């Protein structure tokens, strides 16, 4: 089977173009970070490069440095914001791995001792909670 290609109508491409709303926490020329609508824990944030790629496997290597610099920045901010004990950073490639949205993205999830992750793509969070959490993370990022 031929390798799957990038589809510019995926949901994160629409978020990047501003065609559908998101709770944004960080943006620069190369990267956008926003809240996951079905968080696996409070403060679950997604970081995406603006350059199109389906996942890590087809990404231009030059997008990865700027992307992971912001992953680190956001991971530090969410750990501080939520008083977390640790941070899980996850990234999936192709359906067999659990990928469901086909624009490269990295999950950042604050973790607490003894508290398991909620299911992947589980329950939608209330918009007001996402907005509140996004505001707290933005504040931590600006300090
Ligand atoms: P994947 O399995 O592709 O790594 O994860 C995709 C993630 O995107 C899931 O955690 C899911 O909750 C999240 N997600 C799916 N649709 C939307 C959406 O419309 N907006 C936002 N902010 N997150 C989404």
TrEMBL record:
<dbReference type="InterPro" id="IPR001310">
    <property type="entry name" value="Histidine_triad_HIT"/>
</dbReference>
<dbReference type="GO" id="GO:0009117">
    <property type="term" value="P:nucleotide metabolic process"/>
</dbReference>
<feature type="domain" description="HIT">
    <location>
        <begin position="11"/>
        <end position="118"/>
    </location>
</feature>
<feature type="short sequence motif" description="Histidine triad motif">
    <location>
        <begin position="103"/>
        <end position="107"/>
    </location>
</feature>
<dbReference type="Pfam" id="PF01230">
    <property type="entry name" value="HIT"/>
</dbReference>
<dbReference type="GO" id="GO:0003824">
    <property type="term" value="F:catalytic activity"/>
</dbReference>
<protein>
    <submittedName>
        <fullName>HIT family protein</fullName>
    </submittedName>
</protein>
<dbReference type="InterPro" id="IPR011146">
    <property type="entry name" value="HIT-like"/>
</dbReference>
<dbReference type="InterPro" id="IPR036265">
    <property type="entry name" value="HIT-like_sf"/>
</dbReference>
<dbReference type="InterPro" id="IPR039384">
    <property type="entry name" value="HINT"/>
</dbReference>
<feature type="active site" description="Tele-AMP-histidine intermediate">
    <location>
        <position position="105"/>
    </location>
</feature>
């Amino acid at each position: 089977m031929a390798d799957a290609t990038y589809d510019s109508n995926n949901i994160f491409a629409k978020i990047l173009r501003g065609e559908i709303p998101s709770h944004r926490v960080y943006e620069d020329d190369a990267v956008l970070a926003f809240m996951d609508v079905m968080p696996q824990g409070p403060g679950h944030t997604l970081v995406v490069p603006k350059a199109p790629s389906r996942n890590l496997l087809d990404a231009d290597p030059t997008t990865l440095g700027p992307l992971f610099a912001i992953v680190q920045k956001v991971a530090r901010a969410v750990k501080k914001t939520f008083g977390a004990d640790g941070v899980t950073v996850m990234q999936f490639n192709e359906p067999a791995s659990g990928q469901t949205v086909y624009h490269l993205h990295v999950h950042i999830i604050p973790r607490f001792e003894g508290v398991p992750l909620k299911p992947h793509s589980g329950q939608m969070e209330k918009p007001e909670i996402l907005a509140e959490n996004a505001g707290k993370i933005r504040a931590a990022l600006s300090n």
